[in-house]
Amino acid sequence: MTPQSVVDIGREALMITLLISAPPLLAGLVVGLVISIFQAVTQIQEFTLTFIPKILAVFVATMIFLPWMLQVFLGYTTNLFIQIPALAK
Predict the structure, then answer these.
(1) I want to staple 27 with a disulfide (CB 3.0 to 4.6 A). Which of 57, 81, 84, 89 is the partner?
(2) Quick check: 54 and 31 in contact, CB under 8 A?
C-alpha cells in the first residue's frame, strides 16, 4: 500500500463524513437562523428557546435523510472492501 493510496482513502472518508453530516447540520443551521431572526424581531432574548426546535429539526432531517445517508455510507464501505486486494499489493 502506497502513501498516496492511504491519503486517497482518508480524503474520501472525510468527504463522505462531510456529505453524510450535511443534512442534519444544515437543518439545525436554518432553524437556528430563523429562531434568531424571530428573537431579534420580537426582542425575546430567551437562551433556551433555540434548543428544542434545533433538536427536533436535526432529528427530523436525520430521519428523512437516513436512507440516503446509509446508502452513501454502505457504498463507500463496499467500495473500500472491494479495493482491499488491490491495496494489499
Answers:
(1) 57
(2) yes
